[in-house]
Amino acid sequence: MSPSWFDDLWITDATPVPCGMSRETVKRSDLAGHAGYGYCASHSSFYWGLKLYLVCAGDGMPIMWCLANPKLGEREVVTALLERDHHLIRSGQILLADKGFSGAQFAATTAAMGLRLLRPDRKDETYKNGNLGGVRQWIESVNHTLKGQLGLEEHGGRTTHGVFARVAQRVLAMAAGIWHNWNIGATAKRSLSPTTTDPFKESII
């Protein structure tokens, strides 16, 4: 457990976890019924797979996470995640999110849980928080660690249990790296050794 676990600021976001490229793979996959089609904005393309939802501390230390069908609404999934792990929420906790988590119902739900939702304003909204100084880049940087340093998109899972296990490996590896960097006093808390790039490449599940 790192010092950031006790911070009052949490950030949340979702990122694609592709599980197949070809139509034949989709037809024969054991993930049928769990995975689905979604759109990946960073690659400007559609994909078939799951979506990783992560709530973490400001330095990226995972607090709670789950995998969901990309067809499900982001606010719906995060609401279910927060309700499931509501015992981790402290009154007055700030939840920093992007514009995709706008909506009166989601704001009311998080407020009822004791969370203060903070997100950039949409263009069609009255000024409240502004653009929060490029908060999107900060939030996405956590996903970049999972994808760039830990090979999230190249997990290689073929079954439901396999995908969940491989994603869990990467989330735990990031948590361990952050904890280690806190203990050695490293400035960049999510910086992993170059030798740990996709350390799970050879594992078969």
From TrEMBL:
It comes from the Bacteria. Residues 7-173 form the Transposase IS4-like domain. Pfam families: DDE_Tnp_1 (PF01609). One of its GO terms (biological process) is DNA transposition. The lineage of its organism: Bacteria, Bacillati, Actinomycetota, Actinomycetes, Mycobacteriales. This is Transposase. One of its GO terms (molecular function) is DNA binding. Transmembrane segments: none annotated.
